[in-house]
Amino acid sequence: MIRVHYRRRRADETYEQWRQRMLDETSLFIEWGLKHPGSIPRIPTHLTGFGEFSGQVKKWFWEFVLTTDFGPSGW
User: Fold this and answer.
1) Tens digit of pLDDT per residue, the chain (75 long)?
2) CB atoms < 10 A from the CB of 65, how many?
3) In this structure, are residues 55 and 24 in contact, taking their beta carbons and an 8 Å threshold?
4) How many Å apart are CA 43 and CA 13, to the nearest integer?
C-alpha cells in the first residue's frame, strides 16, 4: 500500500486558493507533528562526507514512509 496523496487543484478554485489550501494542510501536519513527536518517523542521518546509506537502508526508509499511515486524524 502506498499512501502518497497528490492533491490537485480543484476545478473551482484559483491558484491562490489552492496554494493557501496546501499551506494550511502543511501547517496542520507540522503542528500535529510537533505535538506528537513520537508519531513521526525519524529520518536517518550521518555526518556529511562520511559515506552514504546502504541501498537496504534507503529501501527500508522509503518503504516505511510510503506505507505507514501517520498524520492528523482525518488527514
Assistant:
1) 434 455 666 788 898 998 998 899 889 989 998 999 988 888 888 888 888 889 998 898 888 888 887 777 766
2) 14
3) no
4) 34
pTM for the whole structure: 0.58
67 Cβ partners below 8 Å, 6+ apart?
1, 2, 3
Residue with cell 496523496: 5
Cell numbers standing for residue 39: 508519531
Q: How far apart are CA 65 and CA 44, in angstroms?
A: 12
Rounded Cα gap, residues 59 and 8, in angstroms: 27
Characterise 44 by phi-psi region: left (phi > 0), alpha (psi -120 to 50), beta (else). beta
